[in-house]
Amino acid sequence: MPKILLFGAGGVGSIYTYVLTQGGASVTAVCRSNYETVKKDGFTINSAIWGEGIQVKPEVVRTPEEARGTEWDYVISCSKAMPGSSPSTPDIIKPAISPRTAIVLCQNGIHIEDEFAKAFPNNAIISGAVYLPVTQTSPGFVTHGYIERLEIGTYPADAVKAHKDSVQTFADIFTAGKGTAHVFDDVQPRRWNKLITNASWNPLCALSRSKDIHLLNSTPSSKKMIYGIMLEVVKIAQACGYTDIIAKHADAQMERVVVQIPDRGIYPSMVGDALNLRPMEVEAIVGNTVRIAMEKGVEVPLLELTYTLIKALDESNRKRRDEKA
Ligand SMILES: NC(=O)C1=CN([C@@H]2O[C@H](COP(=O)(O)OP(=O)(O)OC[C@H]3O[C@@H](n4cnc5c(N)ncnc54)[C@H](OP(=O)(O)O)[C@@H]3O)[C@@H](O)[C@H]2O)C=CC1
Ligand SMILES: CC(C)(CO)C(=O)C(=O)O
């Protein structure tokens, strides 16, 4: 039975705990604020796809340090992607990493893999684009909408065969658990495709404290604004050599908003962080994107404005957090 340590047991982490457990893996979740609830009752999931009141009760630890000593086949990171934070996620998960462990990143953003590859140069690094509208509404209780899809591949794309094999094994467990996993030889274009949605909806909804559908309907020009950011991301992806990423991908990401939870819309994951004064994935999702655009000489005025505003909000939230502490 594959042994999996799940780090970041919030919205995405709890659903993946469920899928991987169903798929036959033994999953241990690293829980922090929801430790007591999950230890006692597990996660309770209301899913538009799999049904209401689903319960899954993993083994629980408080830290990766507590999980030291077990030979984990996979350590999955489903925390918010905070490249450059201190301590870094690689530092935090390090006690649980053995030579055989594959590290799976189920996180939004672009160029988030580098710090893991540097910290664990001989381990398989598996990078994933996650489609899963989900929110932890209270500790251990999670609501999930109509979409579920995971796109994965090695980082870098030209990894050794053993690392490629570990991606396929992970996908097989996921699929056996009734999840939808697609393996890609090079997953980076898939990450750029996902970034189209996250670099636009996430910061704009966080700045406006709105559901996606409300942002879309707020003014006659909203769609133009959101779509304009998406097209800037397309241009950057193309400048990076991913010429298969084209405007029709932006159209599809636009359409998905109407499908996710029809009529009601969703709060993208950054909104909860904005409202609760938690650090937002500003650098992983927007900052890195703007920096890559600059390196490639691509003009991205809408993304630059978005980065300025969301960075300022993140900083003012940090000050408010410090004042409250
Ligand atoms: N939610 C969504 O709809 C989607 C999210 N994503 C991406 O998936 C990733 C996860 O998002 P999401 O599930 O929403 O995030 P959540 O905020 O719901 O969950 C993150 C979890 O990580 C935990 N965590 C963070 N740092 C530590 C630490 N040092 N030790 C232990 N636990 C820690 C948090 O614990 P604590 O509660 O104690 O802070 C929290 O439970 C992000 O990259 C996001 O962008 C992708 C697609 C959809
Ligand atoms: C938009 C969404 C829900 C897509 O799955 C997402 O990635 C997020 O909320 O961060």
Overview of this protein structure:
This protein is α/β, with parallel strands linked by helices. It folds into 2 domains: 3-183, Rossmann fold, CATH 3.40.50; 188-324, Orthogonal Bundle (N-(1-d-carboxylethyl)-l-norvaline Dehydrogenase, domain 2), CATH 1.10.1040.10. It contains 12 helices and 12 strands. The protein has helices at residues 11-22, 35-41, 89-93, 114-119, 161-176, 188-208, 212-216, 222-239, 247-260, 269-275, 282-296, 301-324; strands at 3-7, 26-30, 43-47, 51-56, 59-61, 74-77, 102-106, 125-131, 134-138, 141-144, 149-154, 181-183. The longest helix has 24 residues, at 301-324. Ketopantoate binds next to helix 6. NADPH dihydro-nicotinamide-adenine-dinucleotide phosphate binds next to helix 1 and strand 9. One of its GO terms (molecular function) is 2-dehydropantoate 2-reductase activity. Residues 4-156 form the Ketopantoate reductase N-terminal domain. Belongs to the ketopantoate reductase family. InterPro entries: 6-PGluconate_DH-like_C_sf (IPR008927), 6PGD_dom2 (IPR013328), ApbA (IPR003710), KPA_reductase (IPR013752), KPR-Related (IPR051402), KPR_N (IPR013332), NAD(P)-bd_dom_sf (IPR036291).
